[in-house]
Design a protein that fits this description.
CATH superfamily of the largest domain: SPOUT methyltransferase, trefoil knot domain
CATH topology of the largest domain: Alpha/beta knot
Number of helices: 9
Bound molecules: adenine
Number of domains: 2
Structural class: alpha/beta
Strand order of the largest sheet: 2-1-6-5-7
Order of helices and strands: EHHEEEHEHEHEHEEHHH
Number of strands: 9
Amino acid sequence: MRIDVVTLFPDFVRQSASVGVVGRAQQRELLQVETWNPRDYTSDRHRTVDSSSYGGGPGMVMMIEPLRATLMAMRGAAPEPVHLIYLSPQGSRLTQGRVEALAKLPRIAMLCGRYEGVDERLLAHEVDEELSIGDYVLSGGELAAAVIIDAVGRLQDGALNDAQSAEQDSFSDGLLDCPHYTKPVHDALGSVPEVLLSGDHAAIARWRLKQSLGRTWLRRPDLLSQHALDVESRALLDEFRREHVRSGQARSNETVDD
Ligand code: ADE
C-alpha cells in the first residue's frame, strides 16, 4: 500500500512512520509513505502557502494554488488512483471499521491543514473524504495523519507478527480487549488470575471473552449497545456483572439490572 501525505511538516510525518510496526512494514516494503510539502510548489520568494480569510477574522487560510500544484504532482507520482482524505475536526469520526476499509485500498493520500484550514473550493474539488480522529482540536492534521498511517499500516499483510495478530485487537469484534498478564505470577500488586495458568484453552477463551464483555459494559456501554450478543456472551456478561456487584467495585449506577 502507498500513502502520500501533503504537509508543511514532512519530517514529523516521516519520522513518526519510521518506528515500530509501521517502520518495519516500510522496511519490508509492505507500505510506502511519501510526503509532499506545498512550500515546494510556490512561486514567490517567501514560499507563501497561506493568506488572510475573506470576511475577516483571525487566522490564515491555506491557498488553492500551492495545494493544487502539490496534489497534481502527488497524483502523478504513481499510477494508482488516489483516495484523498482531508483531516479536520469537521470530518466524520475515524473508527476501526473505517481503518480496516482504508487498509484494503492500494493507495490513499492525506491532506494536512494548518492555520484555520484550507480554502473550501479546493476541498470541494479534490477531496474524497474528510476524517476526524476525535472531538478535540489539534493545531494541524499531521498528528491525525500519523495516527491513520499507524492504524492502517499495522493491518497490512505481514506487518504484525503472529503474536500481535490484529484479530485480538480491541474493536476488531466490536469489544474492548481483555486484560493481559506476564511474569511473575505473584507480586505485591497481586496475582495472575488462576484460570490463565490452568492450560485449559476453552476456559481461558471464555474468561477472556467475559473480561472483554465486562470491560466494554463498564467503560464503553455505547459499543455494547451496537453489538448483538449471542446466548453465551449474554450469560458471560451477566456473570461478570453479578461478580462485579458482589466484589463491591460497582458504583451506585452499575447494578445487575442495567
Ligand atoms: N486537525 C485538527 N484537529 C483534528 C482532529 N481532531 N482530527 C483530524 N484532524 C484534525
